[in-house]
Amino acid sequence: MRKLLVAVGILLLAGCAQQKTQEGFPVFQNMGNPLITDKFTADPAPMVYNDTLFLYVGHDEYYEGQDTASGGKEFNITEWLCYSTTDMQTWTDYGSVLKPTDFSWAVGEAWASQVIEKNGKFYYYTTVQGGEPYVGKAIGVAVGDSPTGPFKDAIGKPLVCDTMTSNGARGWWNDIDPTVLIDGEGQAWMCWGNGTCFLARLKPNMTELDGEIQVVDLPKYVEGPWLHKHGDLYYLTYASMGVDREVVSYATAPSVAGPWTYQGELTGMAENSFTIHPGIVEFKGKWYLFYHNATLTLGGHEGAIGRRSVCVEELFYNSDGTIRVVEQTKKGVSNLSK
Ligand code: FUB
Q1: Can you tell me which atom of ligand 1 is nearest the CA of 176?
Q2: Signal sequence span per UniProt (predicted)?
């Protein structure tokens, strides 16, 4: 009898380890931070649709020689991955849902991106490296009929390329990290940029800019803007320069058009990571801050600038609309006892 019980136990454990959804996608449990432990992941972008939270990330990939590379070659990100959950504990892994090379005019570099839904269509705003004649970092937009794709280039050219913005701070690579929000009046806005925070309206088709590109002046702004609304306030959260690495800061405004009021730092620096990259969402009555650090070791390769790991913490607002400073923890939002 004892042997039988042990055998059943082993089978159950094996079954758990290989748990899959009906569609055959692998499932895993939230064991604390980092959230995803079988791949290096970065630049989290959460989206809630129909009681499910979808999480889009860039796949940081190790390559031979990565540790000795310089000149920005530390990143090797060739695809975006998608995950989902209905309870923040059990997660489904959909694998790769889009690649920069799905844009015929792009040559690589799946940097930070965001998906948003409008009228049953899912718009994937991406950072990529443009090829001729769009050389430099550029923003592409792909569209799909489901949150997990397939996604197709919506316009056959960049939505934003280097010639459309000033070549001030960070020059040819300042057009990165798009974030999109549809405001209370139904107006869609896109914010992006490294070194400069750009802001523009989108036309109702979501695939064309509407009017001038403006600049939002934010203290110590580096990159990774994220737009969201809580109550009557709009929030522009972003990676700012901390002591020697990025931290997350934020500003608030009565409308996305501004004026934006700086509210201070929301986090400290991420462990072992120069970058941090915020993504904020409300899900089932709670608010979450997704970010990345570089604490995971995989295949003998320690976390590093191009080997980051997505994490998540709960976010709490004060009654005046400011947000409580977020402590970066190992437990994150897992059900683990500590
Ligand atoms: O992942 C590449 C770049 O690093 C992103 O676009 C930035 O936000 C930073 O996280």
Answers
A1: 6
A2: 1-19
**pTM of model > 0.90:** yes
Residue nearest to atom 9 of ligand 1 (CA): 275
Fold of 35-315: Tachylectin-2; Chain A (2.115.10)
Looking at the CA of residue 177, tell me the nearest atom of ligand 1. Answer: 6
Is residue 180 within 8 Å of residue 210, measured between CB atoms? no
CA 222 to chain centre: 15
Q: What is the DSSP letter of 62?
A: -
Q: Name the residue at shortest CA distance from atom 3 of ligand 1.
A: 111
Query: pLDDT: is 13 or 246 the higher one?
Result: 246
pLDDT at 5: 43
pLDDT band for 12, please (50, 70, 90 cuts).
very low
Read off the pLDDT of residues 194-209 as tens digits, 9 standing for 90 and up.
Answer: 999 999 999 999 999 9
φ, ψ of residue 76 to 5 degrees: the values are: -140, 90
Q: Which of 40, 41, 43, 139 to mutate to test the pocket of ligand 1 (most atoms within 8 A of CB)?
A: 43
Does pLDDT of 3 surpass 60? no
The rounded radius of gyration (Å) of the Cα atoms in the chain is: 20
Residue 336 confidence class, pLDDT cut points 50, 70, 90: confident
Chain mean pLDDT for the chain: 93
In 154-232, at which residue ranges do the beta strands (DSSP E only) sit? 179-182, 188-192, 197-202, 209-216, 221-230
Residues with Cβ within 6 A of ligand 1? 42-43, 58, 75, 77, 111-112, 127, 176-177, 223-224, 275, 277
CA trace torsion 261, 267, 268, 270 (10° rounding): -130
Nearest CA to ligand 1 atom 1: 111
21: CB partners within 8 A, 6+ apart: 27, 92
Interval 62-81 mean pLDDT: 84
